[in-house]
UniProtKB/TrEMBL annotation:
Source species taxonomy: Bacteria, Pseudomonadati, Pseudomonadota, Alphaproteobacteria, Hyphomicrobiales
GO molecular function: oxidoreductase activity
Species name: Bradyrhizobium erythrophlei
InterPro entries per the UniProt record, alphabetical: Aldo-Keto_reductase, NAD(P)_OxRdtase_dom_sf, NADP_OxRdtase_dom
Pfam families per UniProt: Aldo_ket_red
UniProt domain NADP-dependent oxidoreductase: residue ranges: 15-306
Tree of life domain: Bacteria
Keyword Oxidoreductase among UniProt keywords: yes
Keyword annotations: Oxidoreductase
GO cellular component terms given for this protein: cytoplasm
Protein name (database record): NADP-dependent oxidoreductase domain-containing protein
Length: 334
């Protein structure tokens, strides 16, 4: 397993991380035994970075990770946790809370659910519009001094917020969507992170399965959170699946699957970028790990750039109501 360092101040992790959200939420029912087996398979393959959120299944995901790690030696595992999203019993969303008191409260509960003494990377899931980022990061910095956190990260914020946060305490990495069809960070955010020495953990590298090569028109009736995604609706879906046909043609030439090429493309954008793969089953994890063997030549990269120029995807990556809460979208266009 290749390893990469997350920024100047962050940890060294596996070149691919495992995103565990789908094991608890958003993608319909999941098989608990298969989820744990998938986490074990990831660890056996050398993956060290597990990404979660305290609101994934309202704590379920953190407890699932604890269960998976309870039977395995995990001294090299790094756990990244997002916090701040508020939810109701019915699983509806109720805003964000990044006040210092809330930061310490969320952290205390996550430490308990995960069964660890310190969280490797801790980050607010979104920018709280009512709390200056300096106050949020300041509270997290206190927790670093006390030994409850090892590194501070950010998620889906723009350059101005990144700079303000980094001035309070070194930021290890920015977690943000980045893929062949979501290239908005290239216009400004990626440059800012590189200037400041901040790594990138890229989620959505397969655009929620859209460019995995496994999605088709006849799956349009699948009822999970993708039902509300503009990219999976109507004519947008038709146009986006046509893009996948281009990806499949390039993948066939390379001798890989569309998913493997899409993951390899993200990884090829810089040694400071760690793709997160959201595999819920071992077969999908195995496929994703195959991306590590894909070597993209300059000709391959040129062909992919031609097939997937910035803005090529039809529809936004989130519904408008969610985009309105994303600081990273203030200047992003894809």
């Amino acid at each position: 397993m290749e390893h990469r360092k997350l920024g100047k101040s962050g940890p060294t992790t596996s070149a691919i991380g495992l995103g565990t959200m789908g094991m608890s939420d958003f993608y319909g029912p999941a098989d608990r035994s298969e989820s744990i087996a998938t986490i074990h398979a990831a660890l056996d393959a050398g993956i060290t970075l597990l990404d979660t959120g305290d609101f994934y299944g309202m704590g379920h995901n953190e407890m699932l990770i604890r269960e998976a790690l309870s039977s395995r030696k995990h001294d090299k595992v790094q756990i990244s946790v997002k916090f701040g999203a508020l939810r109701e019993v019915e699983r509806n969303w109720n805003g964000y809370d990044s006040r210092p008191a809330a930061v310490k409260n969320f952290l205390a509960y996550s430490l308990q659910r995960l069964g660890v003494e310190a969280i490797d990377i801790y980050r607010p899931a979104r920018l709280d519009p009512d709390v200056p980022i300096e106050e949020t990061v300041g509270a997290m910095a206190e927790m670093v001094k006390k030994g409850h956190l090892k590194h501070i990260g950010l998620s889906e914020v723009g350059s101005e917020t990144i700079r303000r946060a980094h001035a309070v305490h070194p930021i290890a990495d920015l977690q943000i969507e980045y893929s062949l069809v979501s290239r908005g960070i290239e216009s400004d955010i990626l440059k800012t992170c590189r200037e400041l020495g901040i790594g990138i953990t890229a989620y959505g590298v397969l655009s929620r399965g859209l460019i995995s090569g496994h999605w088709s028109k006849d799956r349009a009736n699948v009822r999970d959170f993708r039902s509300n995604s503009p990219r999976f609706q109507g004519e947008n879906l038709d146009k986006n699946l046509a893009l996948v046909d281009s990806l499949r043609a390039i993948a066939d030439e390379i001798g890989a699957t569309p998913a493997q090429v899409a993951i390899a493309w993200v990884a090829a954008q810089g040694a400071d970028i760690v793709p997160l793969v959201g595999a819920r089953r071992r077969e999908r994890l195995t496929e994703a790990l195959g991306a590590l063997e894909v070597k993209l030549t300059n000709a391959h990269l040129a062909a992919l750039s031609k097939a997937f120029p910035p803005g090529a995807a039809a529809g936004n990556r989130y519904p408008d109501a969610q985009l309105a809460h994303m600081d990273s979208e203030k200047r992003a266009t894809a």
